[in-house]
Amino acid sequence: MRSLDIEGPNLVFADQDRDVLTRHESLRSARTITLWVGTGLAEQLMLVWVVALLRRLEVDAGKCRVVQFSLDRKHEVVAVGVLDPSRFEEHPQPTGLDESAVQEAMAAWKAVKAPEPDGLLAFLADRQHSLPFLHRALSSLLHHYPDLSTGVNAWEYQLLRYVRDEGPKATRAIGYTMGHDMDFPEWMADSYLFQRLHRLGNSALSKPLLTLSGDTKQMRGTEVRLTRHGEAILAGTGNAVEWNGIDDWVGGVHLDLRNGRVWFHRDETLVPGIT
């Protein structure tokens, strides 16, 4: 098994002899295309992206076989990368994608990349499913929208919580957030969470929620502490979007308060506007 260091300064995708984007002729000539996926958002998104890519390349998506992991003993397999290598020998039987599954994948991809969230909400409201874990996984995207009460998304709220409880080392706050007990199937990369700490502590904000100190370019060198505004968010007495605005992306949706494009997460749905 090979891997790529996406932060490596010398990485050029065109030089990768097995990269799907630069060697897509292999997809056309393959008799079958096998995807190994867990239940989580990232891997279910990969599944629908591959189907959309095959359609774009005019490759028969019916070639796809999906090895769908769900449980490893008593634990949900959110991502196959956490499995012990021995578990791959006992993998579930691959299943094909029939036309209804292909259509569901295409509908999901269209909803995810749309510039408005209505398509995603419509997809999540549909109870007819051919792909067993896709609907639940995509519901995780709702948690990337700011909460109606606090104005921060679910990951940002957990970061604030663990900065308070486990800080000041950024690595501890990030590590505890990665091991979250939130009830949706998504594991987040430490690089994303480190970037979110910087967003929350940006000194250009009207009311930063955090202060960062030390070698703030390196995760291990960064210390982070709540400001009084961050404490107010955790106490439920402030809203970060009201204070600082928002300029963020969730899939194809650009959240931009300056242009009146804000949707908030409330009660497992999204509502437009500012509180």
Provide the descriptors you would attach to this structure in a database record:
single chain, 275 residues, alpha+beta, Topoisomerase II, domain 5, three-stranded mixed beta sheet, 36% helix, disordered N terminus
Structure commentary:
With 275 residues, this protein is α+β, with helices and mostly antiparallel strands. The protein folds into 2 domains: 13-142, no CATH class; 145-272, Topoisomerase II, domain 5 (Alpha-Beta Complex). It has 11 helices and 11 strands. The protein has helices at residues 25-29, 41-56, 85-88, 99-113, 118-125, 134-138, 154-166, 170-178, 190-200, 228-235, 240-244, and strands at 33-37, 64-68, 71-72, 75-76, 95-96, 210-214, 222-226, 247-250, 253-256, 263-266, 269-272. The strands form 5 sheets. The chain has a 3-stranded mixed β-sheet with strand order 1-2-5, covered by helices on one side. A two-stranded antiparallel ribbon has the order 3-4. The chain has a two-stranded antiparallel sheet with strand order 6-7. Strand 10 (263-266) and strand 11 (269-272) form a beta hairpin. Helix 2 (41-56) packs across helix 4 and helix 4 (99-113) packs antiparallel against helix 5 (118-125).
Helix content: 25-40%
Instruction: Give me the count of strands.
Output: 11
Principal-axes geometry comes out as globular
Beta fraction: 15-25%
Order of helices and strands: HEHEEEHEHHHHHHEEHHEEEE
Largest sheet: 3 strands, mixed
Strand order of the largest sheet: 1-2-5
Overall pLDDT confidence: 90
Total individual domains:
2
Rg value:
20 Å
Q: Give the uncertain stretches in residue-range form.
A: 1-7
End-to-end CA span: 49 Å
Number of helices: 11
